[in-house]
Specification:
This protein is α/β, with parallel strands linked by helices and 342 residues long. The longest helix has 27 residues. About 2% of the residues have low confidence.
Length: 342
Amino acid sequence: MAGRKGITVILPVYNVREYVEEAVDSLLQQSVPPLEIIVINDGSTDGTLELLESRYADSDVLTIHNQRNQGVGVARLKGLALAKGEFVYFCDPDDLVRSDLFEGFQRQVENDPGLELYYFSMRAFVDVGSGRKFLRRDTSSKRSGWFESGKCLLQDLIVSQKHSASTCQFIFRKSVCTKFPVRFVGRVHEDHWFSMNIYLYSGKTFSVRDDLYYQRVREGSLTRSVKDQHYVVAGYEAYRDTLCALKLHVDGFYKGRAVALAYMERSVRTIATLCIKNRVKPPANFFSMTRKDVGDCGVGLHGRLVLWLPELFLLEEMAIRRADVGKAVTSTSMSEKGCAGP
């Protein structure tokens, strides 16, 4: 079968003993199992490796490879080099996949063997006691079905504000990686460049609107913690990196200017908001480069305040945040004095 024959799952792990067994089981219990699951142990010190070796010693699908701690990007590259499958899927070790993920993929690759990218939506959840609370995170495309290319799907996602840099929301044909320099830069935001290029260079694409991937939100995880200057700068550099890749293809989009505008506006807003929320300085050249990008992409007067005058947007957001804090303090003070309404 196509799904059994062709999919390599790459699972980088680092100190996830509490969650990794559930993640692996969700992959092994697929209605159509993958060809192989390559686990890259990135120098775990919490017993993750020992658990995997004990629990899956008899598996003919799962193999474990060790490396010193170098980050998830290096682990993914190692897994990609080892992959035997025609298709590749990256999964995070504390998340889950729905049991029919690979079955749905198999159905479409049998319908059209030229399929290069299979996309699906994801939903976040938090562990609450012995249960789970699912959060609404809609990353589905506006329509399901076939797209002429990954670029067409990317346009749909960016313009509708559903685009995510996650590499866990698609299964891709491994040969697509021969069309661009494959790299994962840094230890945070390392997947932005790779996922952008997978979209840009993939041919026939199929999109499913169903939530087939479940992302666990942990209070101590990197994406939930307070961000420092390094994190914000790394995020900005990842944005600049992916925007440069996008610029090369803007003319190839049916709605090129709209795609560039939506991508830049959302990204610049996110970076500016991170700066304000975490009280860190904007990255060097943030303002001047933002205006240059507007010109390079031909956005012109369609650009919003956040793009043409990011300094004013930053000041405006800071003023709004101060006002909100002031209201909260006043409300608390009145409540303590017994003046608050019912």
